[in-house]
Amino acid sequence: MTSTSETGPRGPLPYDELALVTSRLGLLEGAEDVVDALADLAQAQARLLPDGPATDVRGSYVGGHPYLPAGTSWPTDEAGAPLAFVAQVNFADLAAALAASDSVPSTRGLQELPDSGLLQWFVPAVECFGLSFEHRDRAYARFYSADELTREAAQPVSAAVPDTGSGEWSSPLLHRDRATAVRFVVESSLPAVTDLHEGYRPERLGVLGDEDRLERIGEAAGDAFTDVYGGDTVPGQDDPEEEPPAIGGGDKVGGWPCIVQGDPRCAEAQDPAAAAPGADTLILQLDSDEGVFTEWGDSGIAWLFGDPASLRRGETSSLWWSWACY
Fold first, then answer.
1. Whether 219 contacts 15, CB under 8 Å
2. C-alpha 295, offset from chain centre
3. CB 311 within 8 A of CB 114
4. Which of helix, strand or coil describes residue 194?
5. By the 8 A CB rule, do 179 and 52 touch?
6. Sign (positive or negative) of CA dihedral 134, 136, 138, 139
7. With 70 as the cut, is the pLDDT of residue 74 above it?
8. CA quadruple 190, 27, 219, 227: dihedral sign
9. Are 56 and 264 in contact (CB under 8 A)?
10. Where are the domains of the chain?
11. How many Å apart are CA 31 and CA 303, to the nearest integer?
C-alpha cells in the first residue's frame, strides 16, 4: 500500500484526470485524434481530502460516530450484530463545492446526486465484509433528508461506537475510533483503461455515447496508448521520479470508478431496484491505495453504486456495493 498525504508521493492532490491524460497524450505521436473524444467522456468527481478531526455530527466524515437522531438504533446485520460504520456524506457540502468550481468541462457525474441530505454507509463486520462476490450485494445505507437532520443527535461525533471486534474483518477503517472530516475538491474524471478496452457498454444509460468513438479511443496508438493513458509510462521520461496517479483511483464521490479484477457492474442484481437504469452509477469510492481512510483486505478498493434519481427521493433500495483487492 502506498501511504499518501495531501502532498505525498503521488504529487499534490487533487489532480484533474482530463488535464493529466491530455498532457500525457500530447507527447505521444498518433493520439491527437482522441483528445476531443476523451473530453466528451469526462465527468465530474469530488475528491475526498482529509480536513482534520470531525466535529459536526451532521457533516461529511470517515470513521467515528455517525449522526443518529435521538431514539434511532445502531444498524445491525441479519444476525443482529452491529454493522461497522464507514463514512457519511452531507450532499449540501458537495453541492457547495460543485457550485464553487469552474474548472471542469462537465458537471455530469455529480449534478445528478442530491443537493442536500446525509448518506451513511455501513458494512458487516464479518469475513470479506459480508460480500458474496456473486451478485450485486445490497448496501447497508441510511439517508436523512434536510428536514430529518434538524432532529437532535443522540451522540456526538466523538462518542464510542459498538464493538465489532478486532480482527481483519472487524472494520475497513484505518482509524475506526477517529472521525476524520473531509472536504470536497471538484475535478474531471475519465474512464479507467478497463472501461475503454474491455467493453463495459451500458448503452441503455447513454453514458459512453457513440460506441464507434469509444472503439477508436480504446484502439488508438495500440499498447503505447494504454501504457500512457494508464500511467505505466510517461513520454519523455525513462525513469519518472514520481509514480503517476492511476486514472479513476482515489477516494471520491461520483465520476468514473477504478475497476480492478472483474467488473462488479456486470454482476446480476437480485433486487430489481439495483438493476434499474441508473443503478450502475458510482456514488462513493474508497481506495486503500490512498493510505488515508480505509484498508480493504490486503489492499483494495470499494465502490458504492446506485441510482442517483432514487437517492434524490431519499430511497436507498437501489444502492449496492462491492470491493476487490489490487
1. no
2. 14
3. yes
4. helix
5. no
6. positive
7. yes
8. negative
9. no
10. 17-325
11. 31
Q: Is the pLDDT of residue 108 over 50?
A: yes
Give the up-direction half-sphere exposure of residue 246: CA atoms within 13 A in the CB hemisphere. 19
Please say whether the beta carbons of 108 and 282 come within 8 A.
Answer: no
Residue in the structure block whose three cell numbers are 464510542: 160
Nearest to 64 by CA among 53, 75, 73: 53
Q: Does residue 8 carry a pLDDT above 60?
A: no
Full strand arrangement of the beta sheet holding 320-325: 137-138, 320-325, 300-306, 281-287, 252-253, 43-53, 180-189, 61-62, 84-90, 118-123, 140-144
| Joined grid coordinates for residue 128 | 470479506
Rounded distance between C-alpha atoms, residue 121 and residue 129, angstroms: 13
Q: 17-325: which CATH topology?
A: Hypothetical protein YwqG fold (2.30.320)
- With bands split at pLDDT 50, 70 and 90, how would you rate the model's confidence at 50? very high
Residues 6+ apart with CB under 8 A from 98: 44, 46, 107, 110, 111, 184, 186
Residue written as cell 459480508?
130
Q: Which of 99, 120, 97 is nearest to 49 (CA)?
A: 97
- DSSP H/E element including 193: helix 193-197
Given phi > 0 = left and psi -120 to 50 = alpha, else beta, which region is 144? beta
Which of 43-47, 172-176, 317-321 shows the highest mean pLDDT? Answer: 317-321
**Per-residue cell: 113:** 446526486
Hey, is 255 helix, strand or coil? coil
CA torsion sign, 134 to 87 to 249 to 112? positive
Q: What's this model's pTM, rounded to 2 decimal places?
A: 0.86
